Every structure is written in structure tokens, then in C-alpha cells.
């Protein structure tokens, strides 16, 4: 059986991690499957890992904006090598790429769309709604959360929850010491962590506004941003407000799992999320997690003493962080017995595929 997988870019983000975890899990269970990645760039994320560790192949698609006909024909021409038992999977954020869905709808194999997003603004939102009516019934529809499914498909979808190997993110005192020593952070410092690319959607500016107010009540506090992106605007804000010593930018990290042990709290003030892996990783570490209400709630699955959902109001976040700092939390793995464990994730996909 051959799988053709679309949804890997050069961003080292959640969708790339999702793809790697999924393909690795399927190949560990089945030795009769081959994966071919449909990518836009020779230097796509995790290229070496996908090719060397998972033995994937890849096809470079033409840029659909510059070469729309070539892009369309490259996908449709997959029919020459497809069988009815093969699968094409599109991991995406919206229906706005008309050519992609039009071409894939013509393939003579099982066709799956997985929704990873929950909002789109402006003119793209209208395009998404139009294309959704045209194509959603021509695919098997899957979403990582109910929020993502309602946005992408409205109805007629199934949910396969994101899953992680929670044991990789469990709390380790030696990792706490290692990371804190590396960045010269005292043990008595209240360290807030935010993991993810620096972007408007992830809302790091809001985090700094919270930090500024928090320091009035908890002077020995710092924030650590783990992820890549342009942080010049954030650094200007820090400089203007005299907060330079209270924020750390690590840049992208290959060993992100080690950083959770160094944190005292994880925050996700995102403007838009579907089912962030970062949240599951933090909970695997036993971290209290403060999320915006734009993050779909998982309170039905997790001990609520560790989960907080706030509107994007600075004072509310400050009060929540103060209560976390003054409280006591046991750093146990909160994911291992839930639907978000890796085994459940892979088993659900096995049922979908086979």
C-alpha cells in the first residue's frame, strides 16, 4: 500500500511533528506500507529524519501560485501509479487552495483530509467556505478536535485526537538543573515557559504584557520563549519597559522536551489553535498550563487543578499565575492514561486506513 502525504513545509511546526509521529507509528505497525511526501521545497522540515529514519520518498510540487497548471497536473498524474488501495492524505488548515482539492478529488484512491486549524480571516475565509461546499463530501474528513472539525467541515467528520509519547516529556530534576544552569536561572525564580514559533497567532506580545504586570506582584519571575521567529519587536518592547533581564529567547531547539522540566508553568495565549501538541507535552511534564479560550478545552480528560482557560485579559492571567506560583503541584505525567497517548493516536489511524 502506498501513502501520499501532503502537509509538510519548512517550518518545524506542529504539523511537521504530527506527520513524523504518525508515519513512524504506522510503519512500526505495518511493514507493507510506503510513504511518499508531497512537498514544495527540496529543504522541507525533518527531511533527513523522514528519508533516513523512516525511508520515505518525496515529490516536489510546482508552486501553485506561479505554475498552477503544472501543480494541478503533477497531482492528477499520480493516477498513473495509484491503485484503489492506496491513500492520499492532506493535512491542512483550510479549503482555500482550490487547485489542491480539485486535483486530489480526481484521484482514484482513498482520499483523506485532516483539519489542523480552527479559524481563518478576511477574504480567505470566504474562499474556504465556498470550496468547503464543493469538496468536503468528496473526502473522508478527519479533525484533531471538535473545534477544528466544525471549522473545516461543519459536519460529517470524525475526530482523531492528537497523540504524543508522553514518557518523552516527563519531569526530570536533572533536566531542570541543566537548563536553568545553562541560562543562568536561579532555582527560586518563577519561570514561565512558552513553546512555539514567534508569530502573531501565538501572541507573544500578550505574554510580555502579562509579565510586566506580574513582576509587580512577583518580582522574581522570568519568561522563556522556545521557538524560532523574528523576535525584534518583542525585544524592543522589553527594552522600552526595562524587562530585558526577565525574558530569555532560546531560538529553535532540537531537544524541546528537556525545557519543560525547567519551567514552573506553561502558557498558551494563542489567538488560534486546534489541538496543540505543546499543551499535551507540558501536561506530560506535570506543568500547570494557562491557555487562552481560543485553545479547545480538554478539561474533560485532565485533572483541572493543572488547566486554566482565560480570556485574553492581562489582569486575569496575572492573578492565575500568582495563584500557581503560590500553590503546589506534583509533577506527574497527566497524559499517559488519556486519549492523547501515542498508542491511541496510532491505533485510531490504523482503523481509519485499513
Low-confidence stretches: none
Q: How big is the Rg?
A: 21 Å
For the termini, the CA-CA separation is 10 Å
Any idea what the shape is? Answer: globular
Order of helices and strands: EHEHEHEHEHEHEHEHEHEHEHEEHH
Number of strands: 13
* Biggest β-sheet: strands ordered side by side in the sheet: 3-2-1-4-5-6-7
* Classification by helices and strands: alpha/beta
Q: Helix proportion of residues, in percent?
A: 25-40%
What does this 3D model show about the protein?
With 354 residues, the chain is of the alpha/beta class. The chain is 37% helix and 18% strand. It contains 13 helices and 13 strands. The protein has a seven-stranded parallel sheet with strand order 3-2-1-4-5-6-7. A six-stranded parallel sheet has the order 10-9-8-11-12-13, with helices on both faces. Helix 11 links the parallel strand 11 (265-268) and strand 12. The longest helix has 16 residues, at 14-29. It is globular. The mean pLDDT is 94.
Question: Which descriptors would you attach to this protein?
Answer:
354 residues, alpha/beta, 7-stranded parallel beta sheet, 6-stranded parallel beta sheet, 13 helices, 13 strands, 37% helix, globular
Amino acid at each position: 500500500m502506498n501513502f501520499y502525504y501532503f502537509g509538510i513545509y519548512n517550518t518545524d511546526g506542529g504539523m511537521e511533528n504530527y506527520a513524523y509521529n504518525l508515519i513512524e507509528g504506522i510503519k512500526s505497525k505495518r511493514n507493507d506500507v510506503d510513504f511518499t511526501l508531497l512537498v514544495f521545497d527540496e529543504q522541507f522540515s525533518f527531511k533527513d529524519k523522514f528519508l533516513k529514519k523512516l525511508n520515505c520518498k518525496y515529490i516536489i510540487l510546482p508552486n501553485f501560485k506561479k505554475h498552477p497548471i503544472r501543480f494541478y497536473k503533477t497531482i492528477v498524474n499520480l493516477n498513473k501509479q495509484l491503485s484503489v488501495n492506496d491513500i492520499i492524505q492532506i493535512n491542512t488548515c483550510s479549503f482555500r487552495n482550490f487547485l489542491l482539492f480539485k486535483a486530489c478529488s480526481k484521484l482514484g484512491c482513498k482520499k483523506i483530509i485532516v483539519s489542523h486549524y480552527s479559524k481563518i480571516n478576511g477574504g480567505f475565509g470566504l474562499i474556504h467556505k465556498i470550496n468547503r461546499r464543493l469538496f468536503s463530501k468528496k473526502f473522508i474528513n478527519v479533525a484533531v478536535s471538535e473545534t477544528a472539525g466544525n471549522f473545516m467541515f461543519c459536519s460529517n467528520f470524525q475526530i482523531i485526537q492528537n497523540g504524543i509519547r508522553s514518557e518523552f516529556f516527563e519531569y526530570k530534576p536533572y533536566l531542570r538543573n541543566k537548563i536553568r544552569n545553562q541560562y543562568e536561572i536561579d532555582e527560586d525564580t518563577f519561570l514561565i515557559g512558552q513553546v512555539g514559533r514567534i508569530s502573531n497567532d501565538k501572541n507573544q506580545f500578550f505574554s510580555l504584557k502579562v509579565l510586566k504586570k506580574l513582576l509587580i506582584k512577583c518580582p522574581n519571575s522570568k519568561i522563556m520563549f522556545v521557538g524560532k521567529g523574528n523576535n525584534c519587536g518583542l525585544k524592543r518592547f522589553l527594552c522600552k519597559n526595562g524587562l530585558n533581564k526577565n525574558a530569555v529567547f532560546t531560538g529553535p531547539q532540537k531537544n524541546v522536551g528537556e525545557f519543560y522540566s525547567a519551567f514552573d508553568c506553561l502558557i498558551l495565549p494563542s489567538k488560534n489553535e486546534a489541538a496543540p501538541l505543546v499543551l499535551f507535552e507540558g501536561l506530560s511534564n506535570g506543568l500547570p498550563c494557562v491557555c487562552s479560550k481560543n485553545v479547545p478545552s480538554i478539561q474533560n480528560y485532565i485533572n483541572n487543578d493543572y488547566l486554566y482557560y482565560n480570556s485574553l485579559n492581562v489582569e486575569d492571567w496575572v492573578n492565575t499565575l500568582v495563584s500557581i506560583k503560590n500553590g503546589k503541584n506534583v509533577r506527574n505525567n497527566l497524559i499517559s492514561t488519556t486519549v492523547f497517548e501515542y498508542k491511541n493516536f496510532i491505533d485510531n489511524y490504523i482503523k481509519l486506513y485499513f
